[in-house]
Design brief:
Layout (H helix, E strand, L loop, with lengths): L1 H8 L22 H6 L5 E7 H4 L5 H6 L5 H11 L3 E7 L17 E3 L2 E5 L1 H9 L27 H18 L45 E3 L2 E5 L1 H9 L1 H7 L6 H9 L10 E6 L10 E5 L2 H8 L7 H8 L15 E2 L4 E2 L32 H4 L29 E5 L5 E5 L8 E5 L2 E4 H9 L10 E3 L4 E4 L3 E2 L6 E2 L5 E8 L2 E8 L7 E2 L1 E2 L8 H4 L27
Parallel strand pairs: 9-17, 10-14, 18-22
Antiparallel strand pairs: 1-2, 3-4, 5-6, 7-8, 11-12, 12-21, 13-20, 14-16, 15-16, 19-20
Bound molecules: S-adenosylmethionine.
């Protein structure tokens, strides 16, 4: 038991204690015998009078000491004052004979015998080895010994410091065994033994400079891999510089830095790609790496989305409004017909010259309704037309078209074309353009490329050719059929080639859908004639497309 050890090894004088100045007369003055009376089941109360316990050293002995440290003087001063120290120890409690701690992960062997030192003091005793005096106290609390910390660095420095420490320790030897006096109250520990405040240790962050990037992590005062390379090297040379300057709890800057240096996840667990989330605001800029093979998984598992069969059917029939996301079908707009199988003709000899007179006034234009070319559906060539640049019979050459045309979704006819402005009778609304292909190629395309198409965008060209506007053309391709149309197709000739235009058959009010009669214009009437017409006209013939008689010539 600790109590037995205490009193057996250090017999204490049983003389009555001298009352201190702090004690009241009414208060009974404890004696050392009281220590035995204070014994309880769980603890010992040990009352010490340090003035009595410590035999005052002979004056000569003190005088012989050449050097005195400040702490020596303080201890001596303290010892001259009779003071009481009350120490309570739990029953069966061990304590370190050097530092007095009662907590250690492992009790170890020391100069005082087995299990007399805490783990740290044992290691220190083993490595430094001196002074032995600091490790043999059997009183509690043990006297304080100023034992230097281990110095890290070159061996020469270590040796020097050891020598110096030895000298200091010799000087600091307290008088008197058999019982080294316990200080009346725990003495203020010297600076060297004050443990540095434990910092907030963030793995992968230097505890000194907070950097997260370093080629090598080094050991520091707070353990392995707690300093970056630079700070680690600095610490090995000047340990105090690192510990003192950057004690995290004291350094307000450090806490400020920690607050701002948030640890963002820079790399995903399995990452291959990097995405910059926000590059404008530096504190918030960080990178998120997507999981590895994230796309591969989708590619391997994903399949194209398909609507349920019933909805699909209704969509194909154009019965579901809005399902097409109100985006008109894609096609390529072209400014001239594309001749797929041959070169376009450019025959100037076929160009007829009208007999119109050039306009006399500036604002007037030539080649009006009485122009012979206009009446014959020929466009004039301004180079040889008498009206020159004032000729108005050049609409196809000028790529003329009405503004305010809009593709929209109809109720039962799919997409359609309407005008948002009023159109007068006889005006060219828009030219029907596309790829000029032969009938043969058209049939081929219908069997291959357009085999799944529900809508057809063909217009009879001439001489066994067809305008295919399925992929390339103008908005004219969206004009639906009506048995009572407001527009018609006109074929115009220009330099040996034909141009087909949608012309207004009557005055058309704004926001009206445009129609022409497919019966007279479209190719592949055999297919479309089987399609039910939804023009809604009272004159509706029931089906769209050509009549059974075959391809009819346009006007
Ligand atoms: C040149 S496209 C007209 C644009 C087509 N509505 C679209 O959505 O692209 C011709 C096709 O429109 C449809 N269509 C045109 N007029 C129609 C009508 N009066 N009734 C029903 N369907 C019509 C037919 O499917 C026809 O094959």
């Amino acid at each position: 038991m600790a109590s037995t050890l205490l009193f057996e090894t250090h017999p204490i004088s049983t003389e009555s204690l001298t009352p201190t100045s702090d004690c009241n007369e009414s208060t009974p003055i404890p004696t050392l015998n009281d220590t035995f009376l204070a014994k309880t089941e769980d603890a010992f109360l040990i009352l010490k009078d340090t003035s009595n316990l410590l035999p005052s050293p002979p004056p000569q002995e003190l005088e012989n000491k050449k050097r005195k440290t400040l702490s020596d003087v303080k201890v001596e001063e303290d010892l001259n004052k009779p003071q009481l120290a009350l120490v309570q120890l739990p029953k069966g409690c061990k304590w370190c004979q050097r530092c007095g701690t009662i907590e250690t992960p492992r009790w170890r062997y020391g100069p005082g015998g087995p299990l007399s030192l805490c783990n740290a003091c044992h290691l220190r005793w083993k490595t430094i080895g001196k002074p032995k005096e600091g490790y043999s106290s059997t009183t509690y609390p043990p006297p304080f010994y100023n034992i230097p910390k281990r110095k890290y660095g070159k061996s020469k420095k270590l040796k020097k410091s050891k020598k110096r420490d030895d000298k200091e320790q010799k000087i600091m030897k307290l008088p008197s065994p058999p019982l080294p006096p316990a200080p009346p109250s725990p003495p203020p520990p010297p600076k060297e033994l004050t443990p540095p405040p434990t910092p907030v240790i963030i793995p992968g962050t230097c505890t000194h400079c907070n950097t997260t990037n370093t080629p090598l992590w080094r050991r520091g005062p707070y353990g392995y891999r707690t300093l970056c390379n630079a700070c680690g090297l600095k610490w090995s040379k000047e340990p105090n510089a690192i510990i003192e300057k950057k004690s995290p709890s004291q350094d307000s800057k450090k806490s400020h830095l920690l607050h701002h240096q948030k640890q963002y996840i820079k790399h995903g667990l399995y990452s291959v790609e990097t995405r910059l989330v926000d590059s404008k605001d530096p504190p918030c800029a960080f990178k998120i790496n997507l999981p590895i093979h994230h796309g591969e998984f989708l590619m391997s598992k994903a399949k194209e989305f398909e609507l349920p069969a019933d909805i699909l059917q209704e969509r194909d029939l154009g019965l579901i409004k809005g399902l097409m996301a109100d985006r008109e079908p894609f096609f390529t707009r072209i400014r001239s017909n594309i001749f797929v199988e041959r070169k376009p003709q450019h025959r100037l000899d076929e160009q007829a010259v009208c007999h119109c007179l050039p306009p006399t006034e500036k604002d007037q234009s030539g080649c009006g309704d009485d122009c012979i070319n206009r009446m014959l559906f020929y466009e004039c060539d301004p180079k040889c037309c008498p009206c020159g640049t004032k000729c108005s019979n050049t609409r196809f050459q000028r790529k003329e078209r009405k503004k305010g045309l809009q593709v929209f979704q109809t109720d039962h006819r799919g997409w359609g074309l309407r005008t948002n402005v009023d159109i007068k009778k006889g005006e060219l609304v828009i030219e029907y353009r596309g790829e000029i292909i032969s009938h043969q190629l058209c049939e081929e395309r219908m069997c291959t490329t357009y085999v799944n198409e529900k809508n057809f965008y063909f217009l009879d060209y001439c001489n066994g050719e067809v305008i295919d506007a399925c992929t390339k053309g103008t908005e004219a391709r969206f004009i639906n059929h009506s048995c009572d149309p407001n527009c018609h197709i006109e074929k115009w000739s220009l330099k040996g080639e034909s141009h087909y235009g949608v012309f207004a058959s009557k005055d058309i009010k704004a926001y009206t859908e445009l129609f022409y009669d497919y019966n007279f214009s479209t190719f592949n009437g055999s297919v479309e004639s089987q399609q039910r017409c939804h023009c809604g006209s009272s004159l509706c013939r029931g089906t769209i497309g050509k009549r059974a008689s075959g391809i009819a010539r346009v006007k």
